[in-house]
Amino acid sequence: MLTIFLTGASGFIGQALLKKLLASQYRIICHVRSAAARDQVEALGGIAWQFELDRLSDLETQLRHCDVVIHLAALLKLGSTPAEFASANIQLTRILLKVAQAAAIKKFIYLSAASVVMHGPQDLLDLDETAPLTQRAELPYSFSKARAEELVLSAASASFQTVALRPAFVWGPNDAIERIIGPAIKLGKFAWFGHGSYLFSTCYVGNLCAAVLQAINHEVVGQAFYISDGEPVTFKKFMLARLQAGGFQAPSWSMPKSLAWALAHFAETGWAYLRLVGKPPLVREMVRLMGYAFTLNITAARRQLNYVPAYSIAEGLAEIKVNPKPKYS
Length: 329
What we know:
Blueprint: E1 3-7, H1 12-23, E2 27-31, H2 35-44, E3 47-49, H3 56-63, E4 68-71, H4 82-102, E5 107-111, E6 124-127, H5 140-154, E7 161-167, E8 169-171, H6 176-186, E9 192-193, E10 199-200, E11 202-204, H7 205-217, E12 223-227, E13 233-234, H8 235-245, E14 254-255, H9 257-274, H10 284-290, E15 294-296, H11 299-304, H12 313-322
Parallel strand pairs: 1-2, 1-4, 2-3, 4-5, 5-7, 6-15, 7-12, 8-11, 9-14
Antiparallel strand pairs: 10-13
Helix pairs in contact: 1-7, 3-4, 4-5
């Protein structure tokens, strides 16, 4: 039986993936940081390992019993500082790679992000994996994911297969729309950017899980792959359907993209210089992630991983409507 070491197992994507991996008869050791996370993964059938990852000798001992590392854990909270993103997303990946190689792990699968190729405020259409990675400091999450992906792919060798999966906007039960955007709409704190009338690629969490399973079973070395639901959709059309499935109202107002970018820059600057408490209410990375056309070409994943979206958008929405807050089916 293949043994997999999984980070980020208690999160939105992690729990969904843990259930799929267990259903495929893999043995899963899950890194957790808290008793609550331990209870979550053990209730699903995973094996919890509650240590800090910088305890290198303990980590290496654990990894010597594993065949594959799947690294999902990351800091996602927009408005965090570049140093926080670097520590959580770059340094943690560097540690895992070093110890995985020392422990003779055969394959390292990294959950990257499609946003690693985002740059300034502009539309990006039909991107393939040759697009350059971002160097934009004002996109600290995407910047940190890009640098971590570079570490992963450059570590590849004949004996150490590395793969980076770059999903489009990931959605599903208990996603960011359910936890953050929907509640923000209720408080009047979320607006369309430019009326939302632009093409956008999405990735249902079940489709991302299917891509991970394909990556486990295919021989690929040092490559990145975009993962999406297939054909892009209009951002507003998708969001309206997803909000409706979760029982949320649509935003009632829209903000010009250029104004949103300028206001976000102003908010970031104010928070930095005035040392205000908490996170800025709007950041440029949020505008960049959700305010411009962004579509992906998944030909490489189809050809080299035999990836086929397991769910249509309609099927994903239907699952949410049946049970709006399920435990990651």
